[in-house]
């Protein structure tokens, strides 16, 4: 009886196990029914987008903040789906992200360009009000669903402010293909079309473009553009050929549009074709032109709620520059007109107009999150019309001091904030709501002009925007003051944010660049006040680097040595002391001592400059920098730089600092020894030198001179470090409605 009962129990358990296995097979799909979303293209502004469809339930997609933070999968073909499976993230490092957030699943049955998918919203809703309540949870949506795209987006978004998307693990879909997806066909190759000579004339721009429109092989393998003049582009023949190329290949490039949601991975078979098409788009002329595929996403389109404006701009500048903002935005594909009404110069030679200051060329990148070139620039005329396939803020370049008035028509205003114009500051809270429809805007500071995404400006109130703008201006001023240059006669700094840069997340230059996220600094005053936003002084420091005073391996040192000066004097932080960065963290100070122990010369770090500041005051280095900048000595070798530097320090401090610099193994010549030897020798006796007693003894013994080891005299800066801080100059840009 007991044996029978045991057998019955075992049989029941076996049947239950089989039932569970069958359920699992039904849930996770039988071999006959494959996951049609597996490893398909993902359309998303996200980190690790491929994780959504990689078949790994432990990997995670993490969408970035966006006005429409959706993630989508392109199935490639049209399917009749019987189920869609969405999985919560199950990765320990993401904690509870993605849980407790209401979201919806949508589909779209027809082809659309990946960068323009948001323009089709609302998509076909499958189910709303969904929520993951635990890590690894699966939600299955069953039914007959026709789809080429499966789209997921949180329910709580307002379409005006960027919000976070749904962090999740995996998306799967099951069903059968019912229709081939749209794939544009390239024109058939004409026989002998690429032969040079005979029927293939490539001597002129028009002939090369004509040949390119007939031969994909020629178009994708050759620099079709070559050399040409601006007047040549305007000719009827070139314009007809440009139109023909776009008509021939437009659908192909729409299919392969480029934006952050749909990056282009470089393929050697087609790289040249994309570069050619990029340039050809800029050659279009007319009131309306074809926009670059993806331009509505990056840089972005103007809101349909924003109407075009006409107004005059007068600017009266004392120092030449290339990026003076005109308070207007050019809509992609739509021309604006301008007329010079007044100018103080005899002609317009050297004056130029640019649409979009995003000047970084990213052609050499392996992946493009935007088109390689997005800037239009032309010589200014007395009467002109400009159009861009990408659009962007309009800026003017002037070669010299000038007073000029320009009328603009059919441009789109962005909120105007000019720190030198008190009325614009006082009206900002009204202005930022009135003109919020452009992708980017420009902020006019006293010493720095900035281009950031308009959303950042719109979300920043007057008090914060005035504080952050003034702070960035003060960074420029105090670095100039510290190095001994005159900010009032120097070119303004220009900062531009972009979707993708030539290198890294930020770099120096004119303009100096930062990723779009760097614009957040204007709206993070608390972070700025803590000295945690070092990217700005780092890159501005590069632009104002004193190369004659930059020693071996100092490319990332003599720019960063300004940061403690900025933080100490502008923010009141004890930035030269431990544990502040750069230069005074425990690791920085440990590295300095290890450098001494190493016994060989490799230049110095920021810790060296901070050490000098603690001993003598930061004014010692500040007094030497202009000496290095202005000396007629060539300083074109390390030995010349080192010896000039040490001699100058000795002379400014009135101490013999030769043995001090032997800690860093400086190679000092007889001239330096003689000049410095005329002063009282100083050598520190502190927590750092006490870590190397034997080395200290050897250095002092070898030098053979008694050295003072007490507290040295502090050095005073021989000019006003705070000159112009938090003060503004006269207004130089005037907007006349």
TrEMBL record:
The keyword NAD does not apply. Residues 321-617 form the Peptidase M60 domain. Keywords: Signal. Residues 1-29 form the signal peptide. It holds the Pfam family Peptidase_M60. PROSITE patterns: PEPTIDASE_M60. The keyword Signal applies. InterPro entries: Galactose-bd-like_sf (IPR008979), Pep_M60_3 (IPR042279), Peptidase_M60_dom (IPR031161), TCAF (IPR051244). This is Peptidase M60 domain-containing protein. It comes from Paragonimus westermani.
């Amino acid at each position: 009886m007991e044996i029978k009962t045991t057998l019955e129990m075992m049989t029941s358990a076996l049947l239950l196990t089989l039932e569970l296995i069958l359920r699992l097979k039904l849930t996770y799909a039988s071999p006959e029914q494959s996951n049609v979303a597996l490893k398909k293209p993902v359309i998303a502004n996200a980190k690790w987008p491929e994780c959504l469809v990689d078949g790994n339930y432990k990997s995670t997609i993490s969408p970035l903040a966006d006005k429409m933070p959706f993630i989508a999968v392109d199935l490639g073909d049209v399917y009749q789906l019987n189920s869609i499976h969405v999985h919560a993230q199950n990765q320990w490092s993401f904690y509870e992200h993605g849980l407790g957030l209401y979201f919806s699943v949508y589909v779209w049955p027809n082809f659309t360009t990946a960068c323009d998918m948001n323009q089709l919203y609302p998509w076909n809703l499958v189910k709303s009000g969904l929520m993951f309540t635990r890590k690894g949870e699966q939600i299955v949506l069953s039914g007959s669903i026709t789809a080429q795209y499966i789209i997921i987006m949180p329910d709580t978004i307002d379409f005006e402010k960027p919000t976070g998307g749904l962090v999740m693990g995996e998306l799967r879909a099951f069903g059968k293909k019912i229709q081939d997806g749209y794939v544009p066909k390239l024109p058939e190759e004409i026989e002998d079309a690429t032969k040079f000579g005979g029927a293939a004339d490539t001597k002129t721009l028009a002939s090369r473009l004509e040949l390119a429109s007939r031969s994909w092989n020629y178009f994708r393998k050759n620099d079709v553009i070559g050399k040409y003049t601006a007047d040549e582009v305007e000719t009827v023949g070139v314009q007809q050929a440009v139109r023909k190329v776009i008509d021939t290949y437009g659908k192909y490039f729409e299919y392969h549009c480029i934006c952050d949601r749909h990056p282009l991975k470089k393929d050697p078979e087609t790289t040249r074709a994309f570069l050619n098409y990029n340039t050809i788009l800029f050659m279009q002329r007319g009131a309306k032109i074809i926009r670059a595929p993806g331009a509505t996403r990056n840089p972005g389109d103007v809101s349909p709620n924003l109407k075009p404006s006409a107004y005059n701009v007068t600017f009266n500048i004392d120092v030449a520059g290339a990026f003076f903002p005109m308070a207007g935005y050019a809509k992609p594909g739509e021309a604006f007109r301008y007329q010079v009404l007044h100018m103080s110069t005899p002609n317009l030679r050297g004056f130029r107009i640019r649409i979009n200051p995003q000047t970084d060329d990213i052609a050499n990148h392996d992946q493009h999150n935007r088109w390689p070139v997005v800037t239009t620039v032309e010589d200014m005329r007395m009467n002109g019309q400009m159009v861009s396939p990408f659009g962007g803020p309009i800026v003017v370049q002037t070669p010299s001091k000038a007073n000029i008035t320009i009328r603009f028509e059919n441009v789109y205003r962005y909120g105007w904030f000019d720190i030198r114009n008190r009325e614009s500051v006082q009206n900002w809270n009204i202005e930022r709501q009135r003109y919020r429809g452009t992708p980017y805007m420009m902020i006019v500071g006293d010493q720095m002009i900035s281009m950031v995404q308009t959303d950042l400006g719109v979300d920043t109130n007057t008090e914060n925007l005035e504080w952050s703008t003034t702070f960035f201006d003060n960074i420029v001023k105090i670095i100039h003051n510290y190095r001994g240059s005159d900010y009032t006669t120097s070119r303004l700094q220009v900062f531009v944010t972009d979707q993708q840069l030539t290198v890294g997340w930020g770099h120096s230059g004119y303009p100096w660049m930062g990723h779009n996220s760097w614009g957040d600094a204007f709206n993070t005053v608390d972070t700025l006040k803590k000295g945690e936003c070092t990217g700005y002084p780092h890159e501005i420091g590069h632009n104002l680097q004193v190369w004659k005073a930059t020693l071996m391996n100092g490319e990332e040192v003599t720019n960063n040595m300004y940061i403690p000066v900025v933080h100490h004097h502008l923010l009141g932080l004890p930035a030269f002391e431990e544990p502040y960065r750069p230069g005074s963290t425990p690791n920085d100070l440990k590295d300095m001592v290890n450098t001494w122990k190493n016994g060989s010369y490799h230049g110095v770090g920021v810790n060296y400059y901070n050490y000098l500041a603690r001993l003598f005051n930061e004014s010692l280095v500040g007094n030497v920098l202009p000496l290095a900048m202005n000396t007629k000595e060539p300083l074109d070798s390390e030995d010349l730089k080192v010896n000039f530097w040490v001699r100058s320090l000795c002379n400014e401090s009135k101490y013999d600092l030769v043995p001090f610099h032997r800690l860093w193994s400086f190679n000092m010549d007889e001239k330096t020894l003689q000049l410095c030897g005329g002063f009282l020798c100083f050598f520190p006796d502190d927590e750092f030198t006490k870590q190397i007693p034997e080395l200290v003894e050897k250095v002092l013994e070898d030098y053979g001179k008694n050295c003072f080891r007490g507290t040295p005299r502090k050095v005073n800066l021989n000019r006003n470090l705070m000159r112009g801080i938090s003060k503004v100059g006269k207004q130089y840009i005037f907007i006349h409605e």
